[in-house]
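Please, structure for the following, as C-alpha cells.
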Amino acid sequence: MKVSFALFAVLFLQNIFNTQCSADFLNIETFRHAIQPQFVLFYAPWCSHCKELLPTWNQLADKSHEQNKWNNMKITKVNCIEETAFCSAQNIVAYPTMKLFHDGDMTRFDGRRSVGELAVFIEQVLNYKVHIDEEEGLLTLTSENFDAHIKQGVGLHFVDFYAPWCIHCKRFEPTWKAIAKHYEDNPDITIGKVDCTIETSKCRKWGVDKFPTLAMFQDGHQVDTYKGSRDIEAVKTYISDMLYQRGLRVDSARESEKIKEPPINPDEPVHVQQDMIVDFDSDEDAIV
C-alpha cells in the first residue's frame, strides 16, 4: 500500500510538470543535437523548490518563444529521475540546478530565482548588454543604446525625457537621481534619462512634447506615461504599482530605507531657452 501511494505521488508530481510547463523537455539525445543556446533546468518532480520555480521558468520560456528573444535560446528542463545518466554526466547534486550552454561553454546560474534576474543573466552570458554610462543607478540613454536597452529583459525601464534648459527638469533632477539610487539593485526596473536637446529624433519618435516626460517601457514598447506628482514617495508608489501589476519584484535592496526628499536650492540660476513656453502655474515646460 505504501509503495502504491509513493508511486501515485511521483506520478501526480510528474503530471504537474508535464501539464503546466511551457519549457520543452530535454534528454541527452536532443541536447547533443541542439544548435541554439540552451538554458536548462535540472529538477526532480518531488523537489518543493523545483515546484516553486516552475511558474517563473514557464514565464521565462513564454517570453523567449513569443518574442524570439536571446538568439532563439531554448528554455528547457530535464527530469533527473528519468534522465539519471544525463544528470550524472552534468554533476547535478542538488535541485533545482540551472545551467546555460552556449558556444561550447557552460555557465551556472546561482542568483535570485526571479524572471528579471534570469533574463539579466542570459543577456550577460550572451553579451547582449549594450554600453550605457551609469552613475549610481541612473543610466544615460542615447540613440545608440536606447532601443536595445528598452528591449532587454522582462522588466520595466523608466525614462526621463528632459532638456537641460527646462526649469522643471532642473528641479526634478535630484529626485530622479534619488529614485535611481534607490532602485539600483532591483533587476526588474531600470531608471534612465534622455537629453532631448541631443537626442532630438529619439524624443520626437516617442512623442515627447513637454519636459520632463516620464515614460515607462517594457519589451521595447511604451506601456505608460507618468502624470502624477513628482515627489519621491508618489513616484516610488507608481513604480511599485507597475511592478506589482506585472508580477515583477517590487522591493529593492534599499526598501527599508525611506528616501529623503532632496533639498532644493532656490538660489540656483536657471537658464531659459527662447523657444519654449514657461507657465509658472504649471509643472511642465512645453515645446513650441
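Confidence is low (pLDDT under 50) at residues 1-21, 253-258, 264-281. The chain has two domains: 24-131, 139-249.
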